[in-house]
Here is the input.
Amino acid sequence: MRAFFCLALLSGTLACTLAQAPVMPVNGDFEKGIDGWIFQALNSAVGGKATRMNELLSWEKTDTMLDPKTEKKSAGALKVTLKDLPPNVVAHQTGAIGLLGTTVKTVESDLLVRFDAKLLDGDGCLQINRTWGGGSCEPIILSKEWKTYTTLIQIGYDSPELNFSFVEPNCENFYPRKVVPGAFLLDNIVVTAVPKLKVEADNLLRYGSFDAGPYLWNVRRYWENPRALKLAPEMLTAETKDLPKGLPDNTGAMRVTLKDLPPNAMSHMTGATAHLTKPVKAADSMLKVTFYAKLLSPEKANLQIGRVTGGSNAVPVALTHEWKAYEVVVPLVYDTPSVIFTLVSSADANDKLHKVIEGEFLLDQVVVTAIQKDW
Ligand SMILES: [Ca+2]
Ligand SMILES: [Ca+2]
Here is the structure.
């Protein structure tokens, strides 16, 4: 989607190949201070009222990003220090909240958020979302050096603000993710309203075209013993050159690199995952998944698509080293809110829990629909 290729200038103007509205934070560069930002802590699930903790925000004037073009250091950044928080506060309602210049109408727009950040302390991930739930990027693992990040948020409801929170790194749930202690710096936040990602009418996948990047997907790695889930979004990268032939306006695919897996990594537990727009009921439905895929390594591998945590999966398909279109059906034994794509050595349909193998593959144009159960 060409609309995403925008040139963000420090002056705060945007030059884009398609007309789209910048919804810059009221203050996104922190050159003169941190006006326009507040810190709020709340867990609405257990009631209570929002606690304003603006003392957790400060203006950082020394440790700032160097602009590689001008070779000048930014005059200021926003420092967020999460400490002494009330118990059980969750992302969406807890974090540094910046007012946007305008309320974003989500019927027509998603938000592309580009920012610079640096991790100072803690082992959590950055999560950017609309306040009060819904609309979140996948958690971002921040570097301890200044770095530029881009992420996509489908905010779901109109919103006048964005929340930058710091969440537990290995949380299985999309919501609510628990907020953890830590500290990070933010600078040069540029928010752009981009035309809503085109989704086939009945596609249950929030984002399977990958034309803007591998946003809204994640990689789960599961350790049986100790039972632990680790998210590894760094295993997903954007592929812009090696794309399926003959698809109009296709500008990107997703590269999945499965590596550093535990010896007992099993399918259902380990692989590239995406949330569905609504859970699909096993009582009357199955999933039909269409996609393009290409195997990069190893020499031979099968792709298995299934329900996260097990119980339902499609018969694994043998991938080839050329792009090819596939269609598989995932018979559901249990309701499922998400799907998982992984590489397995076996294509044996009867052996439903397969050992995951390390390797690399490309995915594009993934469409998931619910079809009537085949009795
Ligand atoms: Ca700055
Ligand atoms: Ca694509």
Q: What stands out?
A: The longest strand covers residues 182-195. The pocket of calcium ion (ligand 1) is lined by residues 29-31, 74-77, 187-188 (CB under 6 Å).
